[in-house]
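Morning, I've got a small favour to ask if you have a moment. It would help a lot if you went through both lines with me. I owe you a coffee for this, so here goes:
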Amino acid sequence: MPTTRTSRRSFLRLSLIASASTVAPLYIPRHVLGTESVPPANERIGIGGIGIGRRGLQLFDELPTLGRIVAIADVNLPRAEKTAEPYKAAAYQDYRKLLERRDVDAIITATPDHWRAIVCIHACQAGKDIYAEKPMTLTIHEGRKIVEAVQKYKRVFQTGSQQRSMAANRLGCELVRNGRIGKVHTVIAANYPSPWECNFPGQPVPPGLDWDMWCGPTEPVPYHIDIYTPRARPGWISFRPYSGGEMTGWGAHGLDQIQWALGTDDTGPVEIWTEGPRFNPPTYTEPESRARGEKICSQPKVFFKYANGIVVKFDNGPPGGAIFIGEKGRITIDRGKFVAEPKELGDPPYDDFTVHLPVSNHHLLNWLECIKTREKPVAHEEVGHRSTTLCHLGNIARWVGRPLKWDPVKERFVGDEEANQFLDRPRRKPYLLPEV
């Protein structure tokens, strides 16, 4: 099947989706019956996938039967077509064509980080609910704009911080919130590396891949498979134009758990500083493992302080959580587990709890059910923005190399305009952030 390339010129010609009205879903006659495990077709939520690579395919595999996949969009059109085939779904290279479909009620997007905000805001304007992979954004400014769009267009938004839907993580955070280890004074996070630079030689662009559109708001570079692949040698997740490195990769999981356990989902730290050698990222000129870059870009160490005096240190904590240290002991939270020291601090009964966190045992199902009820999911837009902001603050602290004061209400650095320049990044036309 021939492919079509979306040039910058045609991108400009296509009308931006800017309607504030909610589009109606496609209804199938009631005689199309479901089964005990599969709802009738007209009760299922039509899902469009945007940017469906490695992680997107995993999400499709986990999609509950309440959702049905009706369309796929990817800048790699052959990949979109291959992914769409088993679902008998439509395939597009330009995601805006997918957003025009009336049978798409909601989207799952797992694009690289540098594309996510544009897609999410356009989806809000098109009246679609959104499941967006973590990290939610490439910059702090993008996060606030997504929050504004979700709330303006009354969308249901779930960030892919799926540890909020794991029972052990929820209980571990509830133990901290309910004072089992006493007053928390220190939190040990993992020492997540920041991104570094790349200058790879060019390779032939695979047929059907619109590489210019993949580059999107970033300055175009020659195609290379080890940029295009998420975690390769090393992959776009490690490179600064497209991502915040593992600071926003794994950090979006671990720092999210810190926010949840400390009860700071609507705020953040007030001081950030670093200790150790000045940040000096390498430039990869040919493919190699991530080891060298991650070692160099894990320095200097980063520290946060919250208004209540709790200090977060990036050191030897677990990647999917943190070590919470209080007056009576400590609790270590990681993906799908927690450990209390002494052990009895984590044991039942839990009838003394006064703080109960939202219950979700399946992240995608929680989102789909909230689409039906129009309630907030467990990792809604403000949660995703605030947790991702911590990741960005860690990177900015390394980039400027001096102590910073952060105002979590105004979301600006106090008295430091150089640091404030990192709140957003330049974008090339026509891939600009939509007006909200």
